[in-house]
Write a structure and sequence with these properties.
alpha/beta; six-stranded mixed beta sheet; 10 helices; 16 strands; 22% strand; UCP033093_metalloPase; hydrolase; exonuclease activity
């Protein structure tokens, strides 16, 4: 028996830092990742798809978002089981009980809207732990495990959402999923695989090889936070001995990258330019850039021109403030060849002196000098 395990689609997600039309393209890519599940299911021979929570970014969605999401799920053709998670819980405002969702839900889409066993077919069950609020007061997964029999002829797949206790420092959070309870249920043969959502990067938890986060099928955060996003898991459970094999398939198309670069002179700025220029798929790439070093005003102006250019080419080029420490200081003679005199020359000298000082006006003076250089050199962007 083979199925697809996915989670955290979070359809309707926005990223405020995306440029221009990048947000609509990113939203389309998230829906595209859902549509890609149909061909993947056919390719690997998957019997069904489980979505382990957070199908939607929240419950208050525009009608178009709901309709296009359901249309993408309709195209998958095999059954698709949706678990409400912390972003889209089954509360009073739930998207899953809205008139639009109810009216347009395709026949192949099933909401796991009650805790416990849901039969897929004879001999195969999903054990669901849906969220009913954003702040559960108990381990929802543990609550559905205790009553399950062991040693029968039924293959059971747990579908849960949330953080496993060994992965977080805050052990007092009541909603944490206890790994010990999962491994106990696996060891006694009551369940055979645990499909989890909440972590947006692919991850195996514990030592059994049967507890997995699939991660989000399209990236949602930078690679130092999500090292393995954009995956869907194809899970095989042998019908005779219940052995499990998990294969990963990449369907995500976007990249969110964190980069750090040292810039101390114009050669370093040129190297940064080359590195950014050689990156493929700029329209589907978000860069968070941390810069350290000490530059002259001339080199800082060159850096600004470089960054301005790539900010237009990438989906976003975002300053990484915590990893940025740039000092700018006018070099001796840097403004001697501007071809100006009199009052203008005196004003430039005053700006240079202010820029070299440590006062509150130093940064403004450096910015003014950099703009002056770009204007006099015809390089304004």
């Amino acid at each position: 028996m083979r199925f697809l395990h996915t989670a955290d689609w979070q359809l309707g997600m926005t990223r405020h830092y995306l440029n221009g039309d990048a947000q609509p393209r990113y939203s389309a890519a998230r829906r595209g990742a859902v549509a890609a599940l149909g061909p993947l299911a056919a390719e690997v021979g998957a019997e069904f798809v489980v979505v382990a929570g957070d199908v939607f970014e929240h419950n208050q969605l525009a009608p178009k978002e709901i309709s296009t999401a359901l249309e993408a799920m309709r195209a998958i053709t095999v059954p698709v089981y949706l678990l409400p998670g912390n972003h889209d819980p089954l509360d009073a405002s739930s998207v899953y009980t809205s008139p639009l969702f109810t009216a347009e839900r395709p026949d192949n889409v099933v909401v796991l809207d009650r805790p416990g066993v849901h039969e897929v077919r004879p001999g195969l069950e999903l054990v669901a732990a849906p969220w009913y609020s954003k702040s559960p007061t108990t381990d929802l997964v543990a609550a559905v495990l205790d009553a399950l029999p062991a040693g029968d002829d039924v293959t059971r797949i747990v579908v849960g959402h949330g953080a496993v206790d060994i992965l977080v420092p805050d052990k007092d959070r009541p909603s944490l999923i206890g790994l010990e309870a999962l491994e106990t249920a696996l060891a006694r043969g009551a369940v055979h695989y645990v499909a989890l959502g909440d972590k947006h990067s692919r991850m195996s938890v514990g030592s059994t090889g049967r507890v997995w986060y699939s991660g989000s099928p399209e990236v949602t955060n930078y690679d130092d936070i999500e090292p393995e996003p954009g995956m869907v898991l194809a899970v095989d459970i042998d019908d005779s001995d219940r052995t499990v094999r998990v294969d990963s398939h990449r369907i995500g198309a976007w990249r969110f990258m964190s980069l750090k670069h040292t810039v101390d002179n114009n050669r370093d700025v040129a190297d940064l330019d080359i590195n950014l220029d050689q990156m493929p798929d700029k329209e589907r790439t978000v860069i968070r850039l941390g810069l350290t070093g000490s530059l002259t005003v001339t080199d800082r102006a060159a850096l600004d021109a470089c960054l301005d250019r790539y900010a237009r080419l990438f989906a976003a080029l975002v300053p990484w403030d915590k990893q940025t420490d740039l000092a700018v200081m006018p070099a001796d003679g840097e403004f001697d060849d501007l071809g100006i005199g009199g009052f203008a020359a005196a004003a430039v000298d005053e700006l240079v002196n202010t820029a070299r000082a440590a006062g509150e006006d130093a940064e403004d003076a450096r910015a003014a000098l950099a703009l002056l250089l770009r204007l006099t050199e015809g390089g304004a962007a």
